[in-house]
Design a protein that fits this description.
With about 120 residues, the protein is α/β, with parallel strands linked by helices. The chain contains four helices and five strands, in the order βαβαβαβαβ. α3 links the parallel β3 and β4. The longest helix is centred in the first third of the chain and has 14 residues.
Length: about 120
């Protein structure tokens, strides 16, 4: 019997701010769906997407559900590899210590390495 192939590694890249458009929520829900099928999935926040990692989000003014709560549920789906473009986080003043989910800051070179390691890239 041939050796089983390793599972496909997915990377969901989130580039949208948390409120004002549905793509930000869709990106996280896509990652949750992939994980529900026991597929390995990592998440990378870049550009405006790093704003999803702001602590103490107040979504009532926009009439949206709170993204911070959704992000806090990622470990329940065994999504533990959450990354953020360190330069974007610094530019937006995002304090990762107060993020709703633990995220590892990456340099541009590390972002490229992460993208090279994945089998499927899903961008939102």
């Amino acid at each position: 019997m041939p050796a089983a192939e390793p599972p496909t590694r997915h990377l969901v890249v989130v580039r949208r701010a948390p409120y004002g458009a549905s793509l930000a929520r869709t990106a996280i829900e896509t990652a949750l769906a992939v994980a529900a099928f026991e597929q390995p999935v990592d998440i990378l926040f870049m550009g405006d997407g790093v704003l999803q990692l702001l602590g103490q989000q107040d979504s009532q003014a926009s009439g949206s559900r709170n993204m911070g709560r959704l992000l806090a549920s990622l470990p329940l789906y065994d999504i533990e590899a959450v990354y953020v473009d360190g330069q974007a986080a610094a530019a937006y003043g995002v304090d990762l210590a107060n993020s709703p989910v633990a995220a590892t800051a990456l340099t541009p070179a590390q972002v490229r390495e992460l993208m090279d390691r994945c089998d499927k890239l899903l961008g939102f």
